Amino acid sequence: EPEVTQTPSHQVTQMGQEVILRCVPISNHLYFYWYRQILGQKVEFLVSFYNNEISEKSEIFDDQFSVERPDGSNFTLKIRSTKLEDSAMYFCASSEAGGEEPQHFGDGTRLSIL
Amino acid sequence: QKEVEQDPGPLSVPEGAIVSLNCTYSNSAFQYFMWYRQYSRKGPELLMYTYSSGNKEDGRFTAQVDKSSKYISLFIRDSQPSDSATYLCAIPRPGGYNKLIFGAGTRLAVHP
After folding, report:
1. φ and ψ at B12, to 5 degrees?
2. Residues in chain A whose beta carbon is closer than 8 A to a beta carbon of chain B?
3. What is the mean pLDDT of each run of 10 residues along chain B (112 residues)?
4. B66: how many CB neighbours lie within 10 A of its CB?
5. Which residues of chain B make contact with A51, given a CB cutoff of 8 A?
6. Which residue spans within chain B are E strands per DSSP?
7. Set of chain A residues whose Cβ sits within 8 Å of the Cβ of B107
8. For the segment A18-60, what is each residue's pLDDT rounded down to a tens digit?
9. B80: domain range?
10. B58 and chain A in contact, CB less than 8 A
11. At the topology level of CATH, where does A5-96 sit?
């Protein structure tokens, strides 16, 4: 069964450094998402991306964050200058269509900021 | 009032028990409802996807929606130790680009 893959599984970074989290969505999917889950808290929406542009973003997704689809298969989340509070699990998801189409998630990248 | 509320548990049951997991929501415009299962150190895995009120069954799993009460349930029959996981309800916000609103997740342990 096709799946969303994320790399790396664990990233350790010094505060203030830039980090790029990578995702390969399911190949025929057109909508892409990033969510995060701080330890002990809910999964929360960060951003959705369609047709090479951001379609919706949350208040968490400030100027330090950016997303990109650099080629036909990868989808990346960049955090420009990491803060301690960015430590979380980051999940990539994709869906075939928009609206209420179900989303399929990867296994996440655990980001630890020191 | 939170948009989606879910009792975090934990819930511990013996193997073979019927498990009931529940969420409530506040926005009457919500129409689609999803249940995800999340094993430790893994991403959410889609279990059930329902629209409107009523029941939907898939093997040992039944999803139930009561829109009049804004209440959704997931029932697991004949629970197995392999069902031990965190179960998340998730609702897409209507009118947007499929932003999912998650409940807190209920941690379930099924012991042999």
Report:
1. -120, 125
2. 4, 6, 31, 33, 35, 41-45, 48, 50, 55-56, 58, 91, 95, 98-108
3. 87 97 92 94 93 89 94 97 97 80 96 95
4. 12
5. none
6. 4-6, 11-14, 19-25, 32-38, 45-51, 54-58, 61-66, 71-76, 85-92, 100-102, 106-111
7. none
8. 999 999 999 999 999 999 999 989 999 999 999 999 999 999 9
9. 4-111
10. no
11. Immunoglobulin-like (2.60.40)
Residue A13 token pair: 């970074």
CB-based contact A13:A78 (threshold 8 Å):
no
Structural domains counted in chain B: 1
- A48 to B97: CB separation less than 8 angstroms, yes or no: yes
Asked whether B57 and B65 are in contact (CB, 8 A), the reply is: no
Out of A50, A105, A107, name the one closest to residue B97 (CB). A50
With CA atoms as reference, the chain B residue closest to A90 would be: B43
Q: For residues B26 and B67, what is the distance between their CA atoms, to the nearest angstrom?
A: 10
